[in-house]
Amino acid sequence: MAAESGKIDPMHQFEVTPLGGGFNLGGHEVLFTNSALWMVIAAVALGIFMWGGMRRQLVPGRWQAAVEGFTGFISSMMMANIGTEGRKYTPYVFSLFMFILFCNLLGMLPLGVLGVHPFTVTSHIAITGVLALLSFSIVLVVGFWRHGLHFFSLFVPHGTPLPMIPFIAVIEFISFMIRPFSLGLRLFVAMTAGHVLLKVLSGFVINGFNADNIVIGSVVSVLSFTLMIGISALELLVAGIQAYVFALLTSLYINDAVNLH
Amino acid sequence: MPQIAQLTADNWYLASQLFWLLVVFAGIYVVIGRGMLPKIEATVDARDRKVADDLAAAKAAHAAADNLEESYRQQSDASRAAAQKAVADAKDKAAKDAEKRLAKIDAELGEKLAAAEAEVAAARKSAMAEIESVAAEAASELVAKLSGAKVATADAKAAVKAVLHG
Fold first, then answer.
1. A14, A35, A56: residue with CB nearest B43
2. How far is the C-alpha of A121 from the C-alpha of A102, rounded, in Å?
3. Residue B20: phi, psi to the nearest 5?
4. What is the 3-state secondary structure (H, E, C) of A157-168?
5. Cα separation of A105 and A239, whole Å?
6. pLDDT at B151 > cutoff 80
7. Which of A90, A231, B10, B155 has the smallest CB count inside 10 Å?
8. Which residues pair with A7 in a beta bridge?
9. Which phi and psi angles does A257 have, rounded to 5°?
């Protein structure tokens, strides 16, 4: 946070700063940034979490049960939305879900107290957009691979009256093409808004105690701090829900591609 | 807003972001999605299968126990019926034997009775005959003493017979 002349910039937390390790890739300079660092931390944390569930005991311990809870959650979702063929796509959706979940949660860690500022990877539209495009590409590839040009029948739902087909098809096509944007934007907006809100409130807390009128300032600070606690809890919920929504919508879109309508 | 700023053309960190995202996500997909997830799912599947198998085995054992109990009951019913039949047969036979023996004894007794009766009858007949001859003799002697007339034995006998038999 840049606390210049009492002003706290809530957008500062989203800034990417280089940490070194640059090399050139096709004319673009690629640097190891704080964004990359937190992606790696998320991946390592996820790896450790999963490794704890690899004991493969018949009667699972707590850790193994937790890991199996996550895998079972995703695989039953794939089973419910796509059917037995959904198992093929479980690794992708599971990786997506866990990566987003860990990035969301790690960004919420109150490490700023220790002077380390967590970076929420999923608050960047470039990241969520690429993940959404990845899901969308899988839908397109699987759809055209399995159904060929018949995949276009996705735009004409069953039972559409003949004169309505041109209009319905256009609407369905637009809604189909909007999917990657809505998918990526939803996560990006939810994360950004939550973190901005928390940062603004924490600015209130700091500025309230620093105010000239200490009485009113303290009241504002205490109220803001109370609100922050509640919103932090809400943000933890949002972190889980947004990861779930991303995975759920991806599985539904893959279902469209696998089974058409 | 740094998130939107990176979408402009001359931004320095978009390339780094995308590069590291692809590297990290590809790593997660390969190592965790393809490597660890199937093993965990296999463990879960194996457990589910084991639970289902155990349940099936328990159900089978239960059914076998039921069958065993059923057959045991049938056997015990059958043996009880056999025992009852044996008892009834023995009773029947004993009753028949007793009846037969009784009949035999009855017949023997009847024969003895008949023989005794016949003996009695014969004795009475001979006694009767003796009485007749004695009476005839006495009658002829009486007649001879009273009237001096000799009565033929046969006449006396006939007269006695007539008196005796009415």
1. A56
2. 10
3. -70, -35
4. CCCCCHHHHHHH
5. 6
6. no
7. B10
8. A4
9. -70, -35
Q: How far is the C-alpha of A78 from the C-alpha of A251, rounded, in Å?
A: 6
B20 touches chain A (CB under 8 A): yes
Q: Do B31 and A58 touch (CB under 8 A)?
A: no
Hey, what are B9's tokens? 């053309």
Q: What pLDDT score was predicted for residue A89?
A: 92
Contacts of A51 in chain B (CB under 8 A): 36
**Cβ separation of A50 and B32 shorter than 8 Å?**
yes
Q: Which helix (H) or strand (E) holds B95?
A: helix B37-147
For chain B positions 30-69, those within 8 Å of chain A (CB to CB) are 31-34, 36-41, 43-44, 46-47, 50
3-state secondary structure A34-64: HHHHHHHHHHHHHHHHHHHCCCCCCCCCHHH
- Partner A contacted by B153 (CB < 8 A): no
Confidence at residue A261, expressed as pLDDT on a 0 to 100 scale: 66
The residues pairing with A23 across neighbouring beta strands, listed in sequence order, are: A30
- Cα–Cα dist A67/A90, whole Å: 15
A134 neighbourhood in chain B, CB within 8 Å: 25
Helix axes A90-108, A125-147, angle to 10 degrees: 170
CB-based contact (8 Å) between A32 and chain B? yes
CB spacing of B36 vs A123 below 8 angstroms = no
A88, B60, B81 from B68: Cα distances, Å = 47, 12, 20
Chain A residues with CB under 8 Å of B52 CB are none
The C-alpha atoms of residue B98 and residue A30 are separated, in whole angstroms, by 121
B19 touches chain A (CB under 8 A): yes
pLDDT along chain A (261 residues), means of 10: 58 82 77 89 94 84 91 93 90 95 91 83 91 94 89 83 87 92 93 92 88 86 93 94 95 90 66
Least confident of A11-20, A202-211, B51-60, B121-130: A11-20
Closest by CA to B32, choosing from A44, A116, A210, is A44
What's residue A6's pLDDT?
56
